[in-house]
Structures are given as C-alpha cells and as structure tokens.
Design goal:
Order of helices and strands: EEEEEEEEEEE
Mean pLDDT: 93
Structural class: mainly beta
Low-confidence stretches: none
Number of helices: 0
Strand content: over 45%
Helix content: under 10%
Length: 124
C-alpha cells in the first residue's frame, strides 16, 4: 500500500511562511497525482492544491491562489506545499493525499491514499 507522511507543520504569525513536506513510499511516486487538503475545527475537509503526475499542471483553491505553491520532487519521492502570506483562517490540519489518477483533480473522492495530517496554526 501507499504510505504518506506529512511534516513541517507548526505555529507561525500571520503574514509568515511555512513549507509542508509529504514523503511517499510503497508505489512509484511519479505515476500518480498528489494533493493537499485541510480541515479546520468544525468544518469539512477541503481542497487546497494538487499537482499532476507529470508535474506539468496544478490546481489551487481560490482561497490560497497566489499565496500557496505545490511542487514535487520525484527523485526524493516528496511533494511540497509552500505557504506564504499566511492568515489565521489558514489554521487547520493539513493532509497529503495520493490519487489513483494522473490528473490533478480537486475532488477528495478521487484520492484513496491519505497521510495522518500535520497541524498548521497561524496566530493573529
């Protein structure tokens, strides 16, 4: 099975930056799309960003567009989420997910593999 382990979460001030990492194992990393989702207290898990199998295309939620950047390093079997200009509303548990498709879909229903999540807290 595919195993995903997130890291890089923590406490940051509003306007600050944070970089999340997701290490993948158990399957050829370059052959599936990867995504980041987040879940704030009392809310449903929502899409944040995704990157295609080839890395040639990306998708972002409107709420993070222009502030977050998703990327992947096939050689290191790792996907990243660079978060800049963080806001208190970005506070959530961030989850890394692997799709069975090569397409960077934003629907969580197409991601069968999930990590355990990493907490991101943005203080005002």
């Amino acid at each position: 099975q595919v195993q995903l382990v997130e890291s890089g979460g923590g406490l940051v001030q509003a306007g600050g930056s944070l970089r999340l990492s997701c290490a993948a194992s158990g399957r050829t990393f370059s052959r599936y799309a990867m995504g980041w989702f987040r879940q704030a207290p009392g809310k449903e898990r929502e899409f944040v960003a995704a990157i295609s199998w080839s890395g040639s295309s990306t998708n972002y939620a409107d709420s993070v567009k222009g502030r977050f950047t998703i990327s992947r390093d096939t050689a290191k079997n790792t996907v990243y989420l660079q978060m800049n200009s963080l806001k208190p509303e970005d506070t959530a548990v961030y989850y890394c997910a692997a799709s069975s498709s090569t397409i960077a879909t934003m629907s969580r229903n197409f991601y069968p593999y999930w990590g355990q999540g990493t907490q991101v807290t943005v203080s005002s």
